[in-house]
Amino acid sequence: MIQKPKGTYDLMPEETRKYRALENQLIKLLEIYGYGEIRTPIFEYSQVFHRESELSDMVLKETYNFKDKGNRDLTLRPEGTAGVIRSYVEQKLYADGGITKLYYLGPNFRYERPQKGRYRQFYQFGIEAIGAKSPSLDAEVIGLSYKIISSLGLKQVVVKINTLGDIESRLNYNKILRDYFIPHKEDLCENCQTRIDVNPMRILDCKIDGEKPVVKKAPKPMHHLTAEASKYFSDVLKYLDAMDVIYEIDDALVRGLDYYGHTVFEIEANIKGFGAQNILGGGGHYEKLVSEFGGPDVSGVGIAFGMERLMQAIEAENVEMPKDKPFDFYVLYFDEATKLAALTILSELRDLGYKGDIDHLDRKFATQLKSALKNNPNYLIIIGEEELNSNLYTLKNVKTEEQKTVDFDELVKKLGKKR
Ligand code: HAM
Prior knowledge:
This protein is of the alpha+beta class. It has two domains: about 15-165 and about 225-315, Bira Bifunctional Protein, Domain 2 (BirA Bifunctional Protein, domain 2); about 330-415, Anticodon-binding domain (Rossmann fold, 3-Layer(aba) Sandwich). Helix content is about 35%, strand content about 20%. The protein is built from 14 helices and 16 strands. The chain has helices at about 15-30, 55-60, 80-90, 135-150, 165-180, 190-200, 215, 225-240, 290, 305-315, 335-350, 365-375, 385-390, 410-415; strands at about 35, 45, 65, 75, 100-110, 120-130, 155-165, 250, 260-270, 280-285, 300-305, 330-335, 355-360, 380-385, 395, 405. An eight-stranded mixed beta sheet has the order 1-5-6-11-10-9-7-8, sandwiched between helices. A five-stranded mixed beta sheet has the order 13-12-14-15-16, sandwiched between helices. Helix 11 links the parallel strand 12 and strand 13. Histidyl-adenosine monophosphate binds near residues 79, 80, 112, 122 and 309.
């Protein structure tokens, strides 16, 4: 038997239905905020993700890279932002000088060690607001993230925010971090030892060293901000308060990608027994990404939620999800002649929008009945010899067991509201 690749999963209709309901709920909310959906390719030229400035483990070690038959280097997208920005620049969405608000939903691929909440193919739901360096826009995206979790009814989930400061603050902070880590070099893993020189901030979220006391005690970006960056962050907080957003400041939050500056944030589930992968979503402000792709010197801000983790949180908090609508009817027949009539009424009722089905296996009446009842239909429509000759139908209400012979109009009336 051929099995699915490691780190992937199949979704059965009952679960897929819940995801679809969740997606619809999210989309509805986003439209209120003025976001439009963007769909970009699942694979891009490798340089979209493998940029000089991006030295995160995720991009350096976890991407699925391949060559096509034309010897082009391609990468399955590991995240949504880079592809969206590539498209924003390629399509010149900046031309009107305003803010472009986009959302996206789709699969991403990372070669990670699979565990609960961590897959090699996973779905992200993300948003990007591009075109301005604006503390109120950062606050709006954080506020929207808060709205997403609160409107889903998630109570044990918090919004954590921090600032990495502007470029000058980060240059200064990197120097301070380097000076701090040099005497502790021997306590760090091999990768982090090279990171001291190249990208010391990545030590803070290293999967091996991240929890070591020496890393936990490292200086924090928030305490090394320029006056301008500090004002930017206090403005973000001011706007968040004006929007009644509930958040926590976490000075240790740095995020795992290199394109962030100023505001960063994560949505964390603190649900008992949830597991280690409790970050439902993460995002932040990026200053240089648009210009790196050849666009104007404008910032963007965004966040992406992991759909699987969001669904796990919904289930862990027992949030009620809309259930599938029951079958309005099932048609039962006895032989080829009554099957023809059954197919006709099935098709007519479906055209009217009623949900119904039939047993295609030509099984005995009792077997058809048993299998129909498994699907919990509201009504059974029985077509026997008598009904065939009279153009009438036997309609049985499954719950009350009331049975009546009816014509088509009455049948439709009894089935009730159309979908
Ligand atoms: P990220 O933190 O790498 O950020 O991923 C965002 C979310 O995707 C995570 O919080 C998590 O819920 C989910 N996720 C990531 N990796 C996996 C995995 N292997 N299995 C399951 N879920 C996963 C980004 O991707 C940025 N593009 C977010 C962003 C948007 N920043 C600005 N705009």
